[in-house]
Fold these 2 entries.
Entry 1:
Amino acid sequence: MRFSKSFLICLIFSFILLFVDIGDSSHKKTIGIILPADIPYYEEIHGYVLKKLEEDIASGTIDFIIQKPYPDPIAFSNAARKLIALNVDIILTYGTEATLAVIREKPSQPVLYVAGYSPVLERYRSENITGVEFKTPISSITRYLNTLKEIKTLGVVYNPVEADSVYQLNETMKCCPYFKIRVIKIPVKRTSDLKNLLNETNVDALMFTTSNIANIALSDTQLNIKLPVATLLPRKEAKPIISLYPSPRKQAEKAASIIQKVLKGKKVSEIPRDLSADMELIFNLAEAYKMNLRISVDLLTEATEVIYK
Amino acid sequence: MMKMVFAFGIFFSLVIIPDRCLSQDYSKNEILIGLIPEENIFRQMDRYKPLGEYLTKKLKIKTRFTILSRYGDIIDRFMARNLDGAFFGALTAVLAIEKLGVEPIVRIQNIDGTSTAESYIIVRKESGIRDVKGMKGKTIAFVDRATATGFVFAIAYLKEHGIANPLNYFKEYYFTGSHDSALLSVLDGRADIGVAKSTIVKERIRRDPFIENEISIIARSVPLPDVTLCLSKRLDRRLKEEIKEILLTMDKEPEGITVLQKLGASKFITASKEDFVPVYNLLKKADINIRSYSYR
């Protein structure tokens, strides 16, 4: 009886070992993801990335650990440390600030990023980091905004602690004199800052940089902005008249392709960062009508999407 | 006497009657001239409308312009709409000379004294694209297959640099339909590379000088004949001569000068088939046979 009990335990243990072996955990890779909370644009890219990696997910070759920190430097840093401590195989970040937070922690794992702002990230080149970047042509969005109405003052909503946002503010200040536009800085460190600052500022139009905080602040439906708004990240519920941002689908396609290459064993140092131009230009004709603004037909023909209602 | 009457009759039938038959067009009450959509069509129509009114006044025949919807349609539309002539670009002029037998009459001389245009391959300055190698796997915006400055030059340039199948060299390519739209595609970051005509790019920079800080021209073609008025072979030759004479002399009178200024031109100069030799050379470099070229 004692023999048969021991035999049974051995049999179960062998079966468990066998099962574990079938699962082949040595080939399974874990991707640690930092996805900033409350930014629908990054969520959309992430959705497309998962779709592109469907086969890898189904075959069980990859696993994810997702961190969705509130987009502030401390929360990003904590999320980065957590993923490093969990010893994930790859760290995937969305947006510039999350990427910078991981880079500052100097991880040994490869870092892949999506929707990173090129002029900021080019200062952080390393053999262990690659990804998909973009650079918004600030002059283009200013040019389009200026065709809607004569703009003398442009309020630029940015966050002084987000590097991409500060870079975009400086770019706007460089190009605006050519269009005879004066830039008014609207620094938003907390989402609650925006409403007060807008009440104190008198401008002809607003431009929202890619700042995470500014993007979340813009989603506040109580803002009731009566000015033409241009955004460098989409925020549909805020109904900006013009948006210019990199195509989420194309960012995702490129990111998934890079992830697959790394999963197949290619060195990150051999994968060049991708800075292709895949911008989407959206005009909201319905909102323009509400403000009595006319978007000319030749401008509309340039759009990748026109919102009519 | 009978012989003389007979001889006169034959002379009349051979010379006078055919000429009268030919001059039936001269009695027409409207001249319809096509325009290729090289820039924003509303701006283009604003530029050409005064010229139509000027020709109407001088010829005493209503002269109207019609913008063809796209470059690739130009030969079909020329026939279908029974056009009397068209202001063609370098390649569409060659296509029309070869396929329709049109005759180049006059060419626009720009304000800066040039009557030619180059093709530019443009990129954003920070793109890092400097040469053919850098173009690999990128997105390129062409104007139309039926343009020398907005398509054929780029193909010839890539072939000259050893790229056997230029369109497969890019991740994506598309046609914008106009030169300024190709430029805007690059400025907005919707395309990495754009191919557009120098005159349109310069005009944009004149109106918006910041563009000069944003773009780099990484390749340019030899000068190609710019917008050329070609007239139908059906049109009465005396009417052709009259149109030519009006256009060639309009810079000598105040009213004509005003019309030219609105057109963005200093004057018209005589055009001929020989002007298009550089276009034929470009086609050869691009391995394009104009007679069988699928330009639509």
Note: Residues 202 and 265 of chain B are 14 Å apart (CA to CA).
Entry 2:
Amino acid sequence: MRPRHLTLGAFGFAALAASLLVTNVAAQAPAGIAKPAVASAKAGTMPRTADGHPDLQGNWSNATVTPIERPPGQPAALSKETVAKIEKGVVDRIQRLAAPSDPKRDAPPQGGDGSTGAAGNVGGYNNFWIDAGDRVAVVNGEYRTSLIVDPPDGRVPALTPEARERQAARVKRFQQFGEYDNPENRPLAERCIASFGSNAGPPMLPNYFYNNNYTIVQTKDHVLVMTEMVHDARIIRMGKQHQHPPAHIRPWWGDSIGWWEGDTLVVETTNFHPQQIFRGASDTLKVIERLSRVDADSLLYEFTIDDPATFTRPWSGEVPFEAQNELVYEYACHEGNHALSNVLSGERSQEKARDAAKKSLPRQ
Amino acid sequence: MMRIAFSILAASLVLASTVPVAGHHAFGAEFDPNAPIKLQGKVVKLEWVNPHAWIHIEVIKDGKPEVWMVEGGTPNTLLRRGLTRDSLTLGTELVVDGYQTKDHSLKRANGRDVTFTDGRKMFMGSSGTGAPKDGRDSTEGGTKKPGGR
């Protein structure tokens, strides 16, 4: 068997429908907003903005190898020794994938190379493009095996019967159309409209692939969170005097209202867009996020998903956000997106081939 | 036995982290598994763009030059490692294996494995171990410590 040099195939990230539509947005956050030069919050010197609130501004990353859901059979937390072995394994894998190939290698196998998911049997591209994170998430000194902390088993709660029916109806609705019939039938990420999965959220979760970076900008009246994938900007109105808009107004990342509870930024989001369905949630989904500074280099991001029409109970997670000494770059996706036209022209080309093959068949 | 048990645990944790995400496109929707291809040629253009970079290489087929476009990943990750579009000099000869687009009238393929002619991975092998962000190469940019530490 040929050695595998690739990531997409090995990782096999499945195409998913989720996603939302979005205009590609607002202002690129000012370049150079790196982590603020601050002292440790633990030392009692919480960095604050001019209006006295904790200063959460800067560039942050939530990349980690800890999955959203706990793999079956795992404890909630790992020992330091086990984590060291896991993280060494990640680094070893990166090095293995960076090793030279045989320059006299053949073309890959006819019929596909066995890759799964989005690599779709053709193998994706080299691992050096990938930056998925190489650390186990640590919260309160615990090496976590899942980002979900409640329910205690670290798993997304069961769906309600109503949610299962809704999902079945959605699948049936999409089956009326060919998945390659037109651009509108393609996933929002493929169309450069929204980020991978729930990267921009809410909840803001790592995509386990690359560009898991965020820029936070605060003013007295608003907090902006710009997600590098796909340059998605959430604008949070500050103050409990604000109200969510009528139910028919559905922005791409929902409508977010924030306020301070002590030194914690709390954000409530409702009015999610119907094409941005978070794990099959209903239009009554409510997400509560809490962001607080742990120290000069990290934030704790907590989220709670509340949607009784979808999940049999609310569920919550905790994700460390680490300060970045690096820039967050613009992700001008649509400008260079040859892939969408390749996908559609590929299907048109294969339709013609299928039609030609039908015509060449002898008549009965 | 312990070693096996640990390997399984580590693998399950890491692999489980690769939850479904919507890639910018399913490569399986774009490229034809029945059209494997091996290309060798000189770089004539580099589209250093998102969502994915495209490398244009000129190959010689039946004595005539032919330009093929090869799809890679996001340049943002490489920018953070100090690599820019000037890091790949025009005229550099590359070896590529991948699959051609489903539309065979296009001369395009995925860069399943892109190397220099000596087999080193493109963008790799110039310093340190060659592994991106393995912590052993002080020339790599950034001090990111993802994961909560």
Note: The two ends of chain A are 45 Å apart (CA to CA).
